[in-house]
């Protein structure tokens, strides 16, 4: 299947965005040979800065296979932003859908048309204290197993040094390097022809996240934690600590009240 024409809106966005990106970030981009020359596929990318979608899109644009990002459907209805989102072929996610797979129907259709669909499987900026990928959500795995398209794991590092996670103040000097490493397709064949259960999707997602993490280990020259940061597990642990603390404070309050009553009775 031939590549989709990049089109006016994407070229317009590139004219606006590429000059500041080139000025602010040096580039160390590897693995472009792993980006399919034709046909639909998914890229699964780690997320560690509010500006890394632009930095990653710059890399992907230069491969000739522009990414179609998933975004809230409401953004497609608002004036210039909506026109740009529609014009660049970004993909609306209908979060109001009660069917998890139909929420990604546009992504499935895009892959089947031969597009590149970019997923941030973590769903948000990583909360890992050292910037490693967290546990992932199952959207990329759902689309991949439904379409059987290649899933290219992509790790990036450097945009987070320019604009750290959850920060609004960039660190412009010294000039940072945006490092990207695109790996070979994740082997998901063992998940084909099986019932798409939550357990299966979780296992496939873990395979995708492990591939991204391996790419990031190579970029950083470090070993990632054996167990990825899990926001859900951390929330449960935090609630447990809060309950324990509240229980301790309640016991202490009861002890103080008992001591006061004993003192008054003397």
Notes on the structure:
The protein is an alpha/beta fold and 266 residues long. It has helices at 8-24, 52-62, 79-87, 105-112, 139-147, 159-162, 198-220, 231-265; strands at 25-30, 41-45, 67-72, 91-93, 116-119, 151-157, 176-182. 44% of the residues lie in helices and 14% in strands. It has a 7-stranded mixed beta sheet, sandwiched between helices. Strand 3, helix 3 (79-87) and strand 4 (91-93) form a beta-alpha-beta unit. The termini are far apart.
How would you briefly describe this protein structure?
The chain has 266 residues and is of the alpha/beta class. Helix content is 44%, strand content 14%.
What is the helix/strand order? HEEHEHEHEHEHEHH
Strand content: 5-15%
Mean pLDDT: 91
Main pleated-sheet profile: 7 strands, mixed
Overall SS class: alpha/beta
**Strand tally:** 7
Helix content: 40-55%
Number of helices: 8
Uncertain runs: none
State the separation between the terminal residues, measured CA to CA.
Answer: 92 Å
Our Rg estimate from Cα atoms comes to 23 Å
The general outline is globular
State the strand order across the main sheet: 1-7-6-2-5-3-4
Biased composition (Basic and acidic residues): 219-239, 250-266
Region (Disordered): 219-266
InterPro entries: Plipid/glycerol_acylTrfase
Pfam families: Acyltransferase
Q: Any descriptors?
A:
266 residues; alpha/beta; 7-stranded mixed beta sheet; 8 helices; 7 strands; 44% helix; acyltransferase activity; acyltransferase; Lysophospholipid acyltransferase family protein; Plipid/glycerol_acylTrfase
